[in-house]
Amino acid sequence: xxxxxxxxxxxxxxxxxxxxxxxxxxxxxxxxxxxxxxxxxxxxxxxxxxxxxxxxxxxxxxxxxxxxxxxxxxxxxxxxxxxxxxxxxxxxxxxxxxxxxxxxxxxxxxxxxxxxxxxxxxxxxxxxxxxxxxxxxxxxxxxxxxxxxxxxxxxxxxxxxxxxxxxxxxx
Length: 171
Known about the structure:
about 170 residues; two-stranded antiparallel ribbon
């Protein structure tokens, strides 16, 4: 790179010198191979996680199910608003993604049913408003966004509770 070019111009390296000669390439995936395929949940693991979450962390069930069925990043899920969810057409509109480009994500009938059930959660929990027509799908009861670190912590606990190996929530 630039450092080698500078060293050559300064006369510190000859054109024929290769400063990397003799260094062995570290073991790892080849170009095009997944970097960490072990980080994906298997279908049985995902099923166990969802069964456990539905029983023990009901307020995270729809969030984790949407993550598993769509592959959306955590930030995309936590910014998702109800007007961007079309259960009749079976699609979600992701307005802001990590790439800065929005996209439409298809959702299947089982996930539509989960989201429809989640949508029916009472509009008021205690003195706090939960879902509003314009509100976040997976926000706090106050309508404010949830913290990604808190969601990740709940996800780790759900994995442990379901007996699933530890994986990262896709961010």
